[in-house]
Structure formats: C-alpha cells, structure tokens
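Cross-check.
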Amino acid sequence: MGNSEQAEQRVIVALDVPDEQSAIALIDQLPQVNFWKVGLELFTSTGPKILEELKSRQKRIFLDLKFDDIPNTVAGACRSAARYGVDLLTIHATAGRDALKAATEAAQEGAAKAGVQPPKLIAITLLTSISARQLAFDLKIPLELPEYALEMALLAQESGMDGVVCSPQEVAQLRQTCGDDFLLVCPGVRPTWADKGDQQRSLTPAQAIIAGADYLVIGRPITTATEPELAWKRISEELTTVA
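Predicted model, tokenized:
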C-alpha cells in the first residue's frame, strides 16, 4: 500500500451531521473523499435522499444503522437497505446467529431485486465507546474485553457475515484469528493531534492499518476540524508512510 491513492481508499469519513444541508456542504468541501459513512442521526433526518445524493456523485457508502432486532425484522431491514446499493451495512452481533444468517440471505435478495451489488454485511462486536470496566460492571459480561470482541467476531464469521467493526486495539488479534478475507472496520481511530472525544480504545490511523484494519472510520478529527481539507490531507499523508 505504497501510494496515497490506495491509503485514501481505506478511510471512510463519517457524515456525522444533523441534516442534508450540512452533509452536502461537507461532501462539497472534501471532494477527494471517496467513501462516506451515513449513520443513525443523518439517515433518520434525511432518509434515503442522502444515499441518492452520494450515489449521484459516484461515492461509496457505509450505511451504519447497526440493526439489532428479532431475525424477521433484521432480515426485512437488510432487504430494504440492500436496495439502495450501499457498500457496507452494519448489524449488531448480539442480535444472534439466526438474525445474522437471515440478514445475509435478505441482503442478497434485496440487492438482486433492485439489480445492484449486495452490500458487505459487517457485525458490530462491541461499541468503541464501551470500556472494559463498563463491559464488566454495566453489561455484566464476565469475559475480558478482547476475548468478548473475539467471540462476537467468530459468531459473525460463522454466521456468514463479511466482517466486523472492532476497535483498533482488537484488530491485530481478530486479523490473526479470522484470516485475511474477513473485513475489519475500525472506528475510534484518532491521529495524535486530535481530541479523543468519547473513544475509549483508540490507535492512530497508521497504527490501525499496520495492525490489520481494512477500513478506518474517521469522523470528528476531520469533520469538526477548523480546516477539514487540511485534516484529511494530514491523515492521508500519515497513511502514505505505511508500507
């Protein structure tokens, strides 16, 4: 991954803004960005309009709605979401094996019906805002955090998911265990010069790629920077150093 073009393809910028107008302003400001994440706030505000806007600009889309419901509902949601022709779609691993299997089948159906490529389905192992202490004391899960993330990743892989979302700190172990063909998407990545915010388990972009991440999701370090273009450029340059 020597040159910046390749490095830049691996950064997904989070459109964590409240409305369509702010989203379009940001997309216009960062024309070099090829891959955008649409999450709950923006999708709830705009619906599929923002996806159509991104598609019309030939952008790749990570639709991060983190479905977590009974298998029938998860399947229905994936069937609908797959019709938009998005590239990545998320489901909580904790929805369970049946929901994850149903999701895979439904996404293929929805995409086939719409004549588009099916999205890659990515399971959430554990939200990156959850600390080891919260996992034990609030969620009452008796496993160590890295072990829990690994168990969720293995459940996802066995259920036919294409990959998982994990924090940068779990990525090396998951890459080793799940192999090279399993997509690892890392949010909570923070350049050394950026504010950590509510991310508990962070690495720099270059460290996360070296550890084995396929994609990095970066939001606030770019989107809330005084000069987003400069922040994007700095991150891209940092990644060109990763051989």
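The chain has twelve helices and eight strands. The first strand starts at residue 11 and ends at 14. Passed to J.P. for a second look.
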